[in-house]
Amino acid sequence: MPEALQELAGSTCWIFSDGKAGNDAQTLGVANALGLAVELKSVAPTGIHRFLSPWIVVASREHFGEAGSRFAPPWPQIAMSIGRLTTPYIRALKRHAGASTFTVVLQDPKVPLRTADLFWVPEHDRLRGANVVTTLTAPHSFSPNRLATLRQSMPKAIAALPRPRIAVLLGGSNGDYTYSPAALQRLTDRLTELGGLGAGFMVTPSRRSDPALVAQAKAAVQPYPHIFWDMTGENPYPHFLACADLFLAPADSINMTGEPCVTGRPVYVFHPDGGSPKFARFHKALEQYGATRRADKINSIGQWNYKALNSAPEIAAHISRRVKLHFSQEENKAELCTSAHPCGLGKSAT
Fold first, then answer.
1. Can you tell me the distance from the alpha carbon of 129 to that of 121, in angstroms, rounded to the nearest whole number?
2. What domains are defined for the chain?
3. Predicted confidence (pLDDT) per residue in 239-255, tens digit
4. DSSP string of 103-151?
5. Three-state secondary-structure class, residue 224
6. Could you tell me the pTM of the whole model?
């Protein structure tokens, strides 16, 4: 762990989690980079409290701040939230704990910047401010050391694949992208082109991958050496990430496109139908950086190099500096108050 981050190692941290794996990967990635002692606080607001998040208060039935509840003192030194459903909880904690807890919000839940002490957003997001930090990719838990360890324990099935080994990460339709029949055919064409060039495939679907997409990809790689995760048993994705020579990532997922960039290895990006200005800014930035190329047509397997992108320690370093400043300022305030009022009160007794 870098020396700049060691000061916070072992500090207590609450992470408010909405249960989404992609969100947990980001908060835990930052917390692990800081070496924090994490307590995961799962939240699942219902009814109006779900519908009106992130702007509504925490439901009274949660008894936030009351003895015996899941959200009671002692307050953590640091707290993080991500996603609109968790935002009311970080706001409630800031109100109850005051300056004793340094609060961090990842992503932009569309709330005022006073909601937390620090915000992080990816560079393609428009949010900016004095307490906002940005990085090109999202944080995650795949550190260089973790990837090196995974490579040392490479599963035999992966080692048996011909090289280059290509990790194919399947996304799914969302509000911006659609896997139409035409898009599925384009994906088949790309996989067939790569297979014809002698590649070995490692394919993993995601929770958003609908049956038609999974079936199409499975049929496309069937003639070639491959591993296809059927979403049962342990997810081989960490080993795929560590052992792939290059990647085919889905444009519809910020995480699944950004995470492979921690390897410094080539990342082809497959674009289904659709898109959005926000996604376009993200993909343009990665292409300009030199990490990714569009998978429009693959006549040869490209090999290119770039400095690996790993935003978790970068974000962690920002938090470390801000936390140190935050608590230093609070100590100075307390000293000034005590010096001016030996009784310890903020005003003279009358």
1. 11
2. 3-140+312-340 (3.40.50), 144-294 (3.40.50.2000)
3. 999 999 999 999 999 99
4. EEEES--S--GGGSSEEEEETTS----TTEEEESS---S--HHHHHHHH
5. coil
6. 0.85
Amino acid in position 207: R
> To 5 degrees, how large is the angle CA 332–CA 322–CA 93?
85
Query: Is beta strand 102-106 parallel, antiparallel or unpaired with respect to 267-270?
Result: unpaired
Distance, CA of 346 to CA of 114 (rounded, Å):
24
For the four alpha carbons of 7, 322, 31 and 1, in that order, the dihedral sign comes to negative
Which positions ≥6 away from 36 have C-beta within 8 Å? Answer: 8, 9, 10, 11, 12, 13, 78
Residue in the block written with tokens 């100075």: 332
pLDDT in tens, 151-195: 999 999 999 999 999 999 999 999 999 999 999 999 999 999 999
Please provide the DSSP assignment of 261-285 as one string: GGGTS-EEEE--EE--HHHHHHHHH
Q: Which has the closest alpha carbon to 79: 59, 56, 54, 105?
A: 105
